[in-house]
TrEMBL record:
Residues 283-302 are annotated as: Disordered. GO terms for biological process: regulation of DNA-templated transcription. This is SpoIIE family protein phosphatase. PROSITE patterns: PAS (PS50112). InterPro entries: Bact_Sigma-Reg, GAF, GAF-like_dom_sf, HATPase_C_sf, HATPase_dom, PAS, PAS-like_dom_sf, PAS_fold.
């Protein structure tokens, strides 16, 4: 077959990266086994992270996973993965050695098949996520490649503000100091400029190595809802707070924070600080006098404050854009607080995404209904002015308990669709009128499209990251059938990626109560306290309704416990132990004090448990996280139920297998007996080899060692038939030949399920002179070996036909005597046929091992033979093995 190429969505001038020059490459090969898919994902992820291309990692991992799965699972060949880097794109190639599985060149995307059909989904994903992709064939391999363009990265510039008249320029001191302070990842000061020393009065030696929080008065001005620790973690942040100077006074400052990385890759934060009234030095726009309604600018004018700060955050920094929006809205209307909510896709709820002047930790990601009630101002779809919230309680649920009295809210709309709501509130009543609502609505209209564009970009990144997360989760869950390990994986995948803590409840059957099976917290020191708290409250109801539902019981119980602990502390005289108890209780309350949600674990139309996720004090889940958790819960439920079914079947299998083994070896006067049994295959206790030793009548004992053709359950079934038939027939008084002839007929009666059987059966009579008389029938089995006291080894019986092949058997028994000190060794062919390459232990090798066992007990002989067999080859045994050793001990000498 000649070389063929398929190019999709444009053509490349270079068959590898277009016109770009390759600047780096990385390659790896993966064997045709299931675990190679996860290894390939890790290789691509590590490669792109090393190149610094984190923006496209999720897409690359998903596409690589699909294509490598096609190669190693469906095609069953080695997969070769090659990553090529250029200046503006990354190309990844996945090749396999199965060119016959070609895709016709005429086939279009419309004919690739259903996404659920194997074989077409990988190419559909390429078409959806890659900028270019294609398939190439040669006579020896097939290669699928895709190209991901690198997004343009912001260079840190700001949109320039309008030219201002001289009389509108901000007034500053004769000299403006811009302090430069650098903070490491732990919040410690690592750089302190001369301007910082002049502004705050501290010499650098006094502050280096100390925490910035030792000097910050946070917040100094109203409207800063983010904590300083959170602000220092953001990629960009601007706002007001205070710095305590060397003279003890708090100096109001305006700060601009930028997150950077040093040459070693460690993150740090650079803080630019000026006096608060000089904020224009760092702030993009200047807020001049607010225009009245009659002189509002038109859509093309840049006089409104909202025009000039939109470009300040990075294009994909939605949180930064929203935080800047609420700060500008608050300042524009001279409010005490402001908030911005984004609408869900169905426009039924609004989710708090940014606020200033409000307790943001409590409000972030909280949800309120779009339709708050009846009346003109009952919907977030219309501008609303509330002059006094005490007169209309519940009109603004977000402001309950905040002390705000008046509020103006306006909708954010894009092409007539509600996308959010913007509000400004004040502590005094009657602060706002329709004129302020009109100004705020005008600003909201200017910002709505930017906000929606950034929201959609964030949502797309979240969904792609979610897809990558679910691919990894599914692979991990599919890799185990152990129930406890599945529970641990469920919790470890959710904490801390989706939640701060997680608890898994399981339900054994429909009549059982939910049982707390696993608890995990991102802070290991809080796991025990959290588990104790959850064990004291009733578990959530096992409701099969899909989706997450809020569960308030843990937070309520934690708060009650903290309150009781605080009240009991009054008047007690054990301060150390008391303080520790109070600290533990309050820490537990803080750990579960936020929103807690429950997702049902439903598998095969039955609720088998609940997945409980929690946030710390007063925090909420965002809707996208709950949707991802719901998707994960479906996969986890099926994995957990599969582990349950596997455990049940393993328990049944092991119980049945144990029933096929003798209950115990009887004590035979004057004879030492030892048995070693090894069944081949993981989880098998019984296979095709078997043994038995049982009393027949007073002074007479029967013994048997046999090998059924094959291994596994079918062979074990014949094993059970043989062992029970031997005992029954021997105790009915039949001799050895009659016993085996009747067993042969019973095996043949099994029809298609019958299997041939090699069997050594004997009867043993201990004698008063210290010897033992044996009657043996060896039906196709390896001959027993006799070890004499002088070290000679010889076969102890003659071979006869095996069982389960012929109807008419003429068997006979042989009578022999074991003298004191003699050993009789009986084994199955798993011992003699032990192989290492072309070498086999064989009968001669076994005889050599037995020759060196003179004077050993029966147990020592069996152990030495087993060690010799295990050492003969390095691979695990592929056949069952049974060893039966009997020894007549020498009489004790006085």
């Amino acid at each position: 077959m000649g070389r063929g190429n398929v190019y999709v969505d444009g053509s490349d001038t270079d068959t590898r990266t277009g016109s770009a020059v390759i600047t780096a490459r990385a390659a790896a090969s993966f064997d045709p086994v299931g675990r190679s898919v996860a290894s390939a994902r890790a290789f691509v992820r590590d490669t792109l992270q090393g190149w610094g291309y984190t923006d496209i990692i999720d897409d690359a991992v998903v596409l690589t996973s699909e294509l490598v799965t096609n190669a190693v699972v469906h095609a069953g060949t080695t997969a070769d993965v090659l990553c090529l880097r250029s200046e503006d794109a990354v190309r990844i190639e996945v090749a396999d050695r199965y060119p016959e599985r070609e895709i016709p060149l005429q086939q279009s995307l419309r004919t690739l098949g259903s996404p659920d059909r194997e074989g077409g989904r990988g190419l559909q994903l390429c078409a959806a996520l890659a900028s270019r992709w294609g398939v190439e064939y040669t006579p020896t391999f097939k290669q699928v490649w895709f190209r991901l363009d690198l997004p343009e990265r912001p260079v840190g510039t700001r949109t320039a503000g309008p030219a201002l008249p001289v009389d509108l320029l901000p007034v500053t001191d004769p000299r403006v100091h811009v302090a430069v302070v650098q903070i490491d990842r732990e919040g410690a000061i690592t750089a302190w400029s001369d301007a910082a020393e002049s502004l705050f009065g501290y010499e650098s030696e006094k502050v280096l190595g100390r925490q910035l929080t030792d000097f910050a008065a946070w917040p100094h001005t109203p409207g800063t809802g983010t904590g300083i620790v959170e602000a220092l973690q953001l990629s960009r942040w601007e706002g007001s707070y205070g710095i305590r100077g060397a003279d003890g006074r708090v100096i109001p400052v305006y700060a601009s924070h930028l997150r950077v990385r040093d040459p070693e890759g460690d993150p740090s934060t650079v803080c630019l600080l000026v006096r608060d009234h000089e904020r224009a030095v760092l702030q993009s726009p200047h807020r001049g006098p607010a225009p009245d309604a009659a002189t509002l600018p038109d859509a093309g004018t840049a006089a409104d404050p909202f025009d000039t700060f939109i470009g300040s955050p990075a294009p994909d920094d939605l949180d930064g854009l929203l935080q800047r929006t609420v700060e500008r809205a608050r300042d524009m209307l001279d409010g005490d607080a402001a908030f911005l909510l984004l609408a869900t896709d169905d426009e039924t709820e609004l989710e708090v995404r940014a606020s200033t002047g409000l307790p943001s930790a409590r409000q972030r990601f909280a949800r309120v209904p779009v339709e708050a009630g009846t009346g003109r101002y009952g919907s977030a779809r219309m501008p609303a002015v509330h002059e006094d919230l005490t007169v209309v309680p519940g009109a603004a649920p977000l402001l309950n308990g905040t002390g705000m009295r008046s509020v103006v809210t306006v909708p954010l709309k894009v092409e007539g669709r509600l996308t959010g709501s913007l509000g400004v509130a004040a502590e005094a009543p009657g602060r706002y009128s329709n004129e302020e609502a009109l100004r705020l609505q005008f600003a909201a209209d200017r910002i709505a499209l930017n906000v929606e564009s950034a929201r959609l970009g964030e949502l797309e990144r979240l969904r792609r990251g979610s897809l990558s997360f679910l691919v990894e989760a599914s692979d991990l869950l599919a890799g185990t059938l152990d129930r406890d390990q599945t529970l641990a994986l469920m919790a470890q995948m959710t904490v801390p990626t989706l939640a701060t803590w997680c608890a898994v409840y399981t339900i054994a059957d429909q009549s059982s109560e939910p049982y707390l099976s696993y608890v995990l917290h991102e802070d290991e020191d809080r796991i025990d306290g959290l588990k104790a708290l959850l064990q004291r409250i009733d578990p959530p109801d096992p409701v099969p309704t899909p989706g997450a539902r809020v569960w308030n019981a843990p937070s309520e119980a934690a708060h009650r416990a903290a309150l009781r602990t605080s009240m009991r502390s009054l008047g007690l005289g054990e301060p150390t132990r008391l303080a520790a108890g109070i600290g533990t209780t309050l820490a537990t309350a803080s750990a579960v004090g936020g929103e807690t949600v429950v997702l049902p674990l439903v598998a095969r139309n039955r609720v088998i448990g609940m997945l409980t996720l929690g946030k710390p004090s007063e925090e909420h889940f965002r809707q996208e996280i709950l949707e991802l958790a719901e998707d994960l819960s479906r996969r986890a439920a099926l994995a957990l139920d599969n582990a349950r079914l596997y455990s049940e079947r393993m328990a049944i299998s092991q119980s049945l297998q144990r029933s096929l083994l003798p209950p115990g070896l009887p004590q035979i006067p004057g004879v030492e007996v030892e048995v070693i049994y090894r069944a081949a295959g993981e989880g098998n206790e019984v296979g095709g080899d078997f043994y038995d030793l049982f009393p027949i009548r007073d002074g007479a004992y029967g013994f048997a060692i046999g090998d059924v053709c094959g291994t596994g359950p079918e062979a074990a079934a014949v094993t059970g038939l043989a062992r029970h038939a031997l005992r029954l027939l021997a105790r009915e008084g039949f001799g050895g030949p009659a016993v085996l002839e009747r067993l042969n007929a019973a095996i043949l009666d099994e029809g298609a399920r019958s299997r041939f059987l090699t069997l050594l059966y004997g009867e043993l009579w201990p004698q008063e002179d210290g010897s033992a008389v044996l009657k043996l029938v060896c039906a196709g089995h390896p001959l027993p070996l006799r070890l004499r006291q002088d070290g000679t080894v010889e076969p102890f019986a003659e071979p006869q036909p095996l069982l389960g092949v012929m109807d008419d058997l003429e068997l006979y028994e042989q009578t022999m005597t074991l003298e004191p000190g003699d050993v009789l060794l009986c084994v199955t062919d798993g011992v003699t046929e032990r192989r290492e390459g072309t070498r086999m232990l064989g009968d001669d090798g076994l005889m050599d091992v037995l020759t060196n066992c003179t004077g050993l007990t029966a147990g020592a002989v069996a152990s030495r033979v087993m060690r010799a067999v295990e050492r003969f080859a390095t691979d695990a045994p592929s056949d069952d093995m049974a060893i039966l050793a009997m020894r007549v001990p020498e009489p004790h000498k006085d």
